[in-house]
Amino acid sequence: MLFSNSESPTEIWQSIKHELHRGASDPKHPFRYVNLGTMGKGFPQVRTVVLREVNQGLNFLVFTDFRSEKVKEVQNSPQVTLHFYHPKKMLQVRVEALAEIHFQDEIADRYWRGIPEARRSEYTGMLPPGNKISNPDLGWETNDKSFFTLLKISPQRIESLQLSKEGHLRIQFEKEKDWQGQWLVP
Questions:
Q1: How far apart are the first and last CA of the chain?
Q2: What is the pLDDT of residues 67-92, one digit of tens each?
Q3: Given this model, what pLDDT does residue 183 score?
Q4: What DSSP character marks residue 59?
Q5: Which of 179, 131, 127 lies closest to 156, judged by CA?
Q6: Cα 89 from Cα 109, distance rounded (Å)
Q7: Burial class (CB in 10 A: 0-12, 13-18, 19+), 76
């Protein structure tokens, strides 16, 4: 368990923020891999992405290829949702957020310089992600052009559900309300 009803919303908020930051800094933390939901064509789309950083402003940073469907979906609708789950602590965190796309700008360039050479091929493919191919090896053909993109995801609302045999607890924090906690019916 991460929190109980004996803790104040302020204490719970600090614990949640700590776990989110750990997800980005500890490769073994369950929050490292997060589900990203976007508005697709006709259906919501959900995929797992790697949480690369949570900065001081509580923005979540994710890397992707500019040609990916998720970038197109964010261009059409910047409202996204992140979904985290910690199985040992029985904790779910949902984040409603606004996403910004950084491609071929100063921010993307700064992070691109930090990508190891061995990993750069993930962003320099000849074909866009999702293209149909006849052989899996064709998906790894690269060129000199980088499609590296950083998604900066700025939370507007963070809701946490603490599952417990003694009774579930649910609390919500909103940026508009300076992240003050509000208990919700689980």
A1: 15
A2: 999 999 999 999 999 999 999 999 99
A3: 98
A4: -
A5: 179
A6: 37
A7: exposed
